[in-house]
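Structure (tokenized):
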């Protein structure tokens, strides 16, 4: 049966592979990415698009992400940049789920790409780490409030994406998860009747989801 899928960040990395997988399966995919002219922090544009183009949704996956290291002492000078972490990684997800809630089919799935950084401290990563921690908390709270939709998180270790290569110019592909494999694991989690409110962790070392 053809499904309606919404993906943010479908132009590169994990999101691109997810889009390819679902298109190959014959699903309808709405790619809300910069390549398609979307700024997911533009609430007016996003609301207009959803209201005019989306009637029912089977799956919503939030892959869009942003990370620009900034030391805490520099936040006052670059607050707009620091705040962008929350606007893209967290707030846009909350806003989209609020728009899609009544359009989600029964047993529909909402999944957000989280990060193990949500549970860690990293030098100059306060914007990224706190935005992912907020994301995880919202997933758990959202799940607690409804039994119609499965709301889950997926938290992989380092994935060989354009963002990680920008953050770590010398990083080797062999030391990271492959983005296509991560996309396949996400599809596996969605297709399984996994519990709502869970943040699934996936690491290169274990090659298992837990």
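Design, position by position:
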């Amino acid at each position: 049966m053809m499904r309606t899928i919404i993906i943010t960040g479908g132009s590169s990395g994990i999101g691109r592979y997810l889009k390819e997988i679902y298109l190959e399966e014959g699903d309808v995919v709405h790619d809300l990415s910069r390549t398609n002219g979307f700024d997911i922090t533009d609430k007016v544009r996003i609301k207009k698009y959803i209201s005019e183009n989306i009637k029912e949704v089977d799956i919503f996956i939030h892959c869009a992400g942003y990370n620009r290291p900034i030391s805490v002492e520099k936040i006052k000078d670059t607050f707009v940049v620091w705040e962008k972490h929350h606007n893209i990684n967290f707030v846009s997800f909350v806003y989209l789920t609020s728009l899609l809630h009544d359009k989600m089919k029964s047993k529909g799935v909402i999944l957000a790409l989280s990060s193990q950084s949500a549970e860690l401290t990293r030098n100059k990563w306060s914007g990224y780490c706190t935005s992912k921690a907020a994301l995880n908390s919202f997933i758990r709270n959202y799940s607690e409030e409804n039994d119609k939709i499965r709301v889950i998180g997926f938290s992989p270790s380092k994935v060989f994406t354009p963002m990680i290569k920008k953050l770590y110019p010398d990083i080797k592909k062999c030391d990271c998860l492959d983005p296509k494999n991560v996309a396949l694991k996400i599809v596996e989690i969605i297709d399984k009747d996994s519990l709502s409110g869970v943040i699934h962790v996936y690491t290169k070392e274990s090659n298992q989801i837990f």
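Reviewer-requested clarification: The chain has six helices and six strands. Residues 79-100 form the longest helix (22 residues).
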